[in-house]
Amino acid sequence: MATVAVTDATFDAEVRQSDIPVVVDFWAEWCGPCKQIGPALEELATQYAGKVKIAKVNVDENPNAPAQMGVRGIPALFLFKGGQVVSNKVGAAPKAALQNWIESSI
Fold first, then answer.
1. Enzyme catalytic residues
2. In Å, what is the CA distance from 52 to each residue of 29, 40, 70, 73?
3. What is the structure's pLDDT at 74?
4. Nearest residue to 71 (alpha-carbon basis) of 26, 104, 7, 20
5. DSSP states of 7-57 as a string?
6. Does the structure show a pLDDT above 90 at 82?
7. 81: confidence class by pLDDT, cuts 50, 70, 90
8. Residue 61 CB: number of other CB atoms within 10 A?
9. Minimal CA–CA distance to 56: which of 1, 9, 4, 2?
10. What is the distance between the alpha carbons of residues 16 and 42, in angstroms, rounded to a whole number?
């Protein structure tokens, strides 16, 4: 399963009402570190298919969700479980570090 593109309109349904944990990646097209972690997130989305959803929110096209979450810098990653944020992380990290973060949070 690939990452899921989430918009301001679909944020609640895709993230807060999800039956499984959701990692939300707030990113932008012009953000170098965002592009750096993109392939790792795609791989993790496949690896965790059915267990963890990995959602991506483009902050330029969807300003409301990042504003609600208090996002000040990108990439910003939030892990939701049962509709609540249980962990967050700012900045790029290697795939292994992202995987460890997800594992320790779910």
1. 31, 34
2. 24, 14, 23, 24
3. 97
4. 26
5. -TTTHIIIIIT-SS-EEEEEE-TT-HHHHHHHHHHHHHHHHTTTT-EEEEE
6. yes
7. very high
8. 11
9. 4
10. 21
